[in-house]
Design a protein that fits this description.
Two copies of one chain form a homodimer.
Chain A (H helix, E strand, L loop, with lengths): L13 H11 L2 E2 L10 H4 L3 E5 L1 H9 L5 E6 L8 H15 L3 E6 L1 H7 L4 H18 L7 E5 L4 H10 L5 H8 L4 H20 L4 E6 L3 H13 L9 E5 L26 H9 L9 H7 L7 H10 L3 H13 L4 H26 L5 E2 L5
Helix pairs in contact in A: 6-15, 7-9, 9-10, 11-15, 13-15
Chain lengths: 362, 362
């Protein structure tokens, strides 16, 4: 049968993302905007952004800009959203960005009842090594603990003056004291590098983090006393659930692979995933598989296969019916366990590296 | 004429305070609860409180407790509300309390656009010397800057989990992001000393600060992970405006004496104040003055005359009509300018004292 080469990276979930772009006034992402697009950019997993041209210009003209992300050091697993963020950070890091990673220990202590000491320990022993294993270059990265960064807290206080409760509700859907403090502190984090050097910055986020970007941009527009650049953002799609929903969810463990995760468990989860295979082998050979509906192909595409040629070959084999659902699952399980093994090894190596933490004066 | 000796400290404004006590469920203050009541306690200017017995017991049994207050280092004037708070702090300081004074520099920077550096300078050059001139014992006082105190910020984050927006609105009448961050940080300040040593504490406040006490008490009731004592509070009436309104207001400068204030200006303001004098001298001699309606007598009673006997004598003279409105104003102006002169001198001396600031580790 003829193989459809138009949009080989398409997915049944495309519609949702088009709606998101329209609803929140995002820019469509076009990989031509940046040099040497990475896998996520090339494959349409990066799908939207805000003020991307400002960052493209910095890259082109070799002007200073920053990329920033953070994590909450609570449990000892990451998810594919974290992995994508790290890969995006790495992309900009490789293209001249000053890189900031913040440890959201204040939020961890408030929301998840993890003490600052415990949060610090977990960040150093798990999250940061995992981020490095996922691709972060520690030599080019500046880290800080939110709880130590008075400038961030001061920014949060100042920003609280710039936004009404009604505006907050319009952005977040709801408003409660905890959400408000947390969001304003995140705005402080997002703009903090600009206190050190006035420069544009880009924040790689998942779709559900876009409200923080909108809030921060609204705040910047109203902050006359300090001239901040509007933060740029770049957004990845979710890694869909193994059952075909928009995103993996911890509340359904069978839908979700954690990073790292046990080989036996990860194999079992992949074997039980929704594939684009037909009801019978005969039918599969005759009609071909449906990679667009296959959550296992989605994993290969988003995370497990770097080479576009290799991925195209699998797509063709599967689409033509020569490769069965069982075979693509076996392939994905092999790739995934190899990935996990390498991640665990790299984390061990990363644990002893020297890191650049900002030290704050009293 | 007969002099009314029942409630010589009464004022036309009593009704308002009875309503406040009822509305907010305060305890009536009875000076018998504490040993050696100070002037403000003896004269009914301290009128209400919360959980006062807990503090009375600490004093009686010589158990540890703390008194805490703070100020925002913005402009270079204080008001009579600050003076009363300092006098209340001094009372507890003299009766065994650990004393904490916080410099609300974070709020000053957010709300009043005073940089942290500027706020620090003003606190050290004006506000703290003024507090010492008004009676604070610096040798027994621990100071801290809000912006340096991570524990307070962490408490604020944690407390944000304990309160809904609706509850916040019920306490404060309205809720906006700025008010919420500021109030939660104040709750952090109020309870901070209990992180260092678990002990009861009392916060001297003006009536308008009671919402912070209520919020903090609600939060304590919901905070299981750290066992805080419910903070006690003690409340002074306002110093009424020179025109007879409930309180002095900066927006009406003629109603309001600042600390310190220029001799010539203060004299003029007192001369123009509402007195309890009659329309004509003849009438005044015949009917007697009305000290209960006299804002000048109120100043003498609240602030300028320490001796109860001396105040009683003035009351009698005025009530009987022997002392005229002009004379009581002259007397008050003399006392006030003497007070201001001493305050300015004491501030100069205080400016060079060594202070106990908490130093925070990074």
């Amino acid at each position: 049968m003829a193989v459809n080469r138009i949009d080989p990276w398409g997915s049944v979930l495309v519609e949702d993302y088009e709606r998101i772009i329209e609803q929140f006034g995002l820019e469509h992402f076009d990989q031509k905007i940046f040099p040497d697009p990475n896998r996520l950019m090339r494959r349409g997993i990066v799908f939207a952004g805000r003020d991307l041209q400002r960052i493209a210009t910095c890259i082109e003209e070799k002007k200073p800009y920053y990329v920033l992300t953070g994590f909450m050091p609570t449990n000892d697993h990451l998810h594919f959203g974290n992995k994508m963020v790290v890969e995006m950070v790495r992309y900009f890091q490789d293209h001249g960005a000053h890189t900031y990673i913040l440890v959201a220990d204040l939020e961890a202590s408030a929301v998840r009842k993890v003490s600052l000491e415990e949060a610090r320990k977990r960040a150093l022993s798990f999250h940061i090594p995992a981020y490095i294993a996922l691709g972060l270059d520690p030599a080019k990265t500046t880290f800080y603990f939110q709880s130590q960064n008075r400038d961030v807290v001061q920014l949060a206080f100042t920003f609280a003056q710039k936004i009404t409760l009604a505006e907050f509700k319009a952005i977040y859907g709801k408003a409660d004291p905890s959400r408000i403090m947390s969001a304003l502190t995140q705005s402080g984090d997002i703009l903090y590098p600009q206190l050190k050097e006035r420069m544009p910055g880009i924040i790689p986020v998942g779709v559900d983090q876009d409200p923080h970007i909108r809030l921060t941009r609204d705040i910047v527009r109203r902050t006359k006393e300090t001239k901040f650049f509007l933060p740029s953002a770049i957004m990845c799609k979710y890694t869909p659930s193994l059952q075909g929903d928009l995103k993996m969810s911890k509340s359904k463990p069978e839908s979700c692979i954690e990073l790292p995760e046990d080989d036996a468990i990860v194999k079992k989860k992949i074997m039980r995933a929704i594939s684009g295979g037909r009801s019978t082998l005969e039918e599969h050979r005759r009609l071909g598989g449906e990679p667009e509906k296959c959550m296992v192909f989605e994993l290969l595409k988003q995370h497990l296969i770097e080479s576009d040629d290799e991925l195209q070959k699998i797509y063709d084999e599967y689409k033509s019916g020569r490769m069965t659902a069982g075979e693509i699952k076996q392939l994905a399980a092999r790739k995934m366990t190899a990935f996990m093994e390498k991640m665990r090894e790299d984390m061990k190596k990363a644990a002893s590296l020297k890191l650049n933490f900002i030290s704050f004066k009293t």
